[in-house]
Amino acid sequence: MKSVFNSPTPTKPQQYDVITFGAATIDVFLRSSEFSVVKAGAAMPGSGKAECVPLGAKIEVRDMTIATGGGATNNAVSFSRKGFRTAAVFSVGGAINADSILGDLKKEGVDTYEQRYPELYSGYSVILVTMGGERTILTHRGASKFLNTALVPWNHMNAKWAYLSSLGGNIDAVRAIMDHAAANHIGIAWNPGSVELHYGAEKLEDLLHKTAVLFVNEEEAALLANEHMGNTNVIFSKLQRISKGVLLVMTRGPQGVMVSHERAVYSAGIFKEREAVDRTGAGDAFGSGFVSALLEVGAWNADIIKEAIRRGSANGTSVLEKIGAKAGLLTREALNDERWKELPITVNDAS
Q: Taking the CB of the first residue and of the last residue of the chain, which one, N or C, has fewer CB atoms within 10 A?
């Protein structure tokens, strides 16, 4: 790959609370009552449902929204809105889309360390959203999967935490980021994508051991545990053994979340949404909300884990009530609104 340009390097090291790594995209949301959800055949992977449109038809789209997305930018904006000094590291293509992504982050107070590939498109997604908020994402990863860690100005960035989301299967980049973080006593939160998880538990073992907090949804957990969807407790128990002491977080969509920390398993439902408009970005919102509680303390205990679950759930619910991955992200003040005060959480001994 040629013609790679970095953003200007600061003259002296910058101290951040958190640095996010992952994709940066332009997202186009199309919402229509003509997008149908049907039961999928046995050969269809995932949730067992499919989103369908009539072949050859011209579909009327009720709403269209264009926004920035991608794990690096979604998480960075979430942390910044909560008052943390934040930087984002990602790669973009040339021209207009890249400038839109960078402009959006600048308005949110996020420092960027981007790499540019002018001959490529920036990451681009088209999201087909049903009236019930379910969606199918058509994604072109573009430049977002070509992050070159050799060009990251490590000596000019200090941080308490690194938050990694999917790098499009670029496992060498994941390993380089984690090696740097581990060597510099930086906490690592990892939300791998399915492309990374397809490497399997054995090949990812060294990365899991460097991770402080692991985020997966239930489908991703089943993939990593090599189990069928539906066997929730079996999936979670197997993942506990694979991750060996990592603070493990498995989100379950409308069914809530399961968290394993030391010998305790925490289970919670969700805050009731006013209207599920779009679930895109809810996972990023939960993870960044969760880590925002960990960022404020040195040691974790049961109260901190419960607070992290509360913040993650509030952030995720707020996001799914709006179109786009960023529109509903909560500020630190909004997290303390009366609406988000109470979330029943049960705790059981894992032994």
A: C
